[in-house]
Design a protein that fits this description.
It contains 1 helix and 8 strands, in the order αββββββββ. The protein is mainly β and 170 residues long. The N terminus is likely disordered.
């Protein structure tokens, strides 16, 4: 999949939680026929619990940004539940910080990440990046991760459901 643009973007993905939605870059919904454009600097997402269903490391690819291509890990799953979700933009302009008590992604879910770290089942803490996996490589069919921090270039999902959604801006 090297150099392939993200596929499977749904209008729901552009609605609120793609990185570009909070950075001012065009979203999938606003560029209907075009591939989504990632934020110049991927926002940081933190969550106390990440519980994917049907998880697979799909490889490494590049997504377009206004500054050129960005190398990302591609994670695919049928669904994911996140608790204590927080996203913070960090591109030097106005910053946005959406947060939710819970965030559930369902359907065809794809995460495009420049960095992903957390503790598998709360025990084994690892960091993944497109430039390397931990040694030995861990490609777990894990049940959940705790203390997750990710640099999220894009997210696509058929359905996004939140509880306790809040938005802070600076």
């Amino acid at each position: 999949m090297p150099n392939a643009p993200p596929v499977g973007t749904s209008p729901a993905a552009g609605a609120a939680f793609t990185a570009s939605a909070f950075s001012g870059a065009p979203t999938a919904a606003s560029t209907a026929a075009a591939a989504p454009v990632a934020a110049r600097i991927p926002p940081t997402v933190t969550t106390s619990l990440f519980a994917p269903q049907g998880f697979a490391l799909a490889g490494v690819t590049q997504v377009p940004t206004v500054d050129g291509p960005l190398k990302v890990l591609v994670l695919k799953m049928r669904a994911a539940s996140l608790r204590d979700y927080r996203l913070r933009t960090r591109d030097g302009r106005d910053e946005y910080a959406p947060a939710a008590a819970s965030l559930d992604l369902r359907g065809d879910v794809t995460l495009y990440l420049t960095r992903f770290s957390g503790c598998i089942e709360g025990l084994l803490c690892v960091t993944f990046s497109p430039d390397g996996l931990p040694a030995p490589p861990v490609i777990p069919p894990f049940v959940f991760m705790t203390r997750v921090t990710a640099e999220q270039a894009l997210v696509t999902s058929d359905v996004i459901v939140t509880e306790g959604l809040r938005l802070e801006a600076s």
